[in-house]
Input
Amino acid sequence: MSELSVHTSSLEQLQQLDACAAGTLFASRVLCDSPDGVLLTQLSTPGVLEEWPLESLQDRVGQAELIESIGSKESLQLIHLDHQRLFLGPERMLACPYESVYLNAEHLTFGRQTLAVRAWYHRYGLSAPAQGKEPDDHIGLELGFVSFLILRALEAAELGDDALLREHCDAVGLFLAEHLLLWGYECLDHVATHAQTHFYRGVGLLTRGILHALERNFDK
Output
């Protein structure tokens, strides 16, 4: 049973949940798509990046990279091209974002891992935005799903529904153990290694920190 699944009602534990939800939501956004001008403007607001909710060494280094990106005014075009090189191609993706490529023997997309992740989404009435055309097991989508589950856990805590809180926290722990923690670190190592912008080096490091926080708080 996950660490946070038994009567998670203390302020400190709820703050951990909230920090994990915020981190995964941000990572999901910038791993699925390169940022737009609106997001970069939001990140440039004084204090926003300094208030990153997680505090590991990787988080601090990643935070510094994002601050450098915003402070040096890295262009949207440069960041967009970096995202394309890392996750889209058209040449070899330098940080392939799909679980099945890491975990199945053929290293191909749309493997059994993709279908297993799809089943998790469907269990909660969700589906990948391009189901059947693009793999469901993109790292950004998996992080978004984790954020969804944590937010449902926080809603249950607000309602005082301990059973539903335990259910959602245990679901997070199980999904991490079956999927994201089996391959996410390797993918993010590629991001941090091959990124050519401060922005995506920071994203790779911050998201590694997020995975560590998830692993600590939802250990199965």
